[in-house]
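Human:
Care to share another protein and its fold?

Assistant:
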Amino acid sequence: MLYFVSPYYKKSVYTGANKRFDELGQQMLRLLGKTFRIVVCEGERPYWAPSAMCLFVKPYGSKWERLQTFYLLRVLLSRLDPATVVSDFMPIPFSALSKHHHFQLIHDLRNFTKFKRGGMSVLTARFQKKQLIRSRNIITVSEYSKHNLTRLCGIPENKIFVSYNGIGEKYLRSPAISEKDIDILYVATFEERKNHRRLMQALNLSDRGLKVRFIGQDLGTKAEIIQLAENLIHEKGFQFEFITSLSEDQLIHAYERTKVYAFPSLLEGFGMPLIEAIALNCRVACSDLTVFREICGDYAEYFDARDPSSIWASIQTSLLNENTRDNDDFIKPYLWENIAVKLLQDLGCVDLRQSPSPT
């Protein structure tokens, strides 16, 4: 039996972590059938998951409620028969997991930087480090994150498994439209590390108005970016569109209409929109981050994300050049089906020669 555990999961919120849970969950259901279960908060059952395969814990909002969820998760896990458990939740209920084959999922080590997440006051980098060191096995989403786990936490490499994020079959379709009427697209929450401010400063270097679309929820910086956008609208004739969220089909349609996908982030554990954009034949201009080099290789233009002139130079080059590269070889490692099979092999929990059908 394999349990995917994520009290963090929100079915109505677009994030890379939520998309990973949905996509891998569907693949695991297809491959494992009755021997796969998920654990999420009450009210967060994914659309693809039959009720019979779901277990629930109490949702949380405050720090105290999070401790309650931790306690209830510990009770739930302690009552299950021994199984393989992949969980992303912290604090980690080690006592309940001791009888299971536990893999702790972590996307990045943001708490070791100035871009710390909110949450319980005890969830500092020091606390997280102790939790990760105690974990028997760790799954992370890039070689870059694996390196950081070893460098910052001293975790042996043989305890860490890399499982990339990916793209679904919808991203393999032929473009429905040929006209690219969006000059620049950026899909990201509005927060400091996503670096919208310097992107706007870079766009101010353009000698003509451009059509720009931002997609993402506000985590604190959106009001400032809207004000900067209004200045560019009045001074240079830019067109801006701010969208909080889109369905998967609507997002794909946006990629198809886009000339350049810009990604000026200062910190990422992976960067899922990059592979989505490349799969749909967008030209990509992104930060010169180690993890982006790992993911994109020579399929992107790279810039210094702290230098608006460097950002603009890469965007301008990408706007002027047509995308003529065949991306078939690029896509293969990022198909969710292939990622799921590799992950199950790393977990050591299934023979995939005969895959049961979900019921």
Summary: Residues 352-359 have pLDDT under 50 and may be disordered. The first strand starts at residue 2 and ends at 5. The radius of gyration is 21 Å.
